[in-house]
Amino acid sequence: MEFESARKRMVEAIDPELETTADALRVVPRHAFVTERWRHLAYADRPLPIGGGATISAPGIVAEMCDHLALASGDRTLEVGTGCGYHAAVTAEIVGAENVYTVEIDAELADAARERLTELGYGAVSIRVGDGREGWPEHAPYDKAYLTCADRTFPDAVVEQVRTEGLLLAPIGLADQRLVLATKLQDGSLDRLDCGPVQFVTMQGPDV
To answer: N or C, which terminus of the chain has less Cβ within 10 Å?
Structure first.
């Protein structure tokens, strides 16, 4: 009951215009995705460490990202950076767990996320261990794709795997990061919209 009340207050404190994810945020138990050490802060609107140099994103930015992507039921969605699985769970509440494909480079994080998501009823979310820059071509094309970690630009492979008129969202830049929403055009180029400054952990891999 204590966590339910805290979760309700968290949702009420988030921008009321971000209605797309309100129901999902009310359902997904964020405290189940953080360690005991940080559980008392589970419903604060802030990122928290989850190990391996990664963090669980603040619920406000998760809601904002879902809203920018205009996620809807049935959208086949690619996530780069599974982390603890919280963002994937929120996405799954909106699009359906069977439509979420997520890639995590850290095998321990991926295994823990898979176990946690299954325990919480999101076992249909598909998780692959690997370099997120490669996306997950076997399940393309995607309607939507997003990165939960910052990179210099949208990974080429991820762009290729999103359908024409599909949407991509990512923190772009390393020291100076901007959240960028992009629509994939007919010729494969991206029409970009700057959604403002953000601060994410950077993507792991040889190019960072």
So the answer is: N
Residues in CB range of 99: below 8 A, 6 or more apart:
74, 75, 76, 77, 92
Does residue 126 have an active-site annotation? no
pLDDT of residue 57 exceeding 60:
yes
Question: 21: pLDDT confidence band, cut at 50, 70 and 90?
Answer: confident
Collect all residues with Cβ–Cβ distance below 8 Å to 181 and sequence separation of at least 6.
68, 69, 167, 168, 169, 192, 193, 195
User: Quick one: pLDDT at residue 132?
Assistant: 96
- Which of 57, 73, 126, 189 is an active site residue? 57
Alpha-carbon radius of gyration of the chain: 16
C-alpha 123: how far from its chain's center? 17
* β-bridge partners, 151: 172
Q: Do 142 and 166 form a contact (C-beta atoms < 8 A)? A: yes
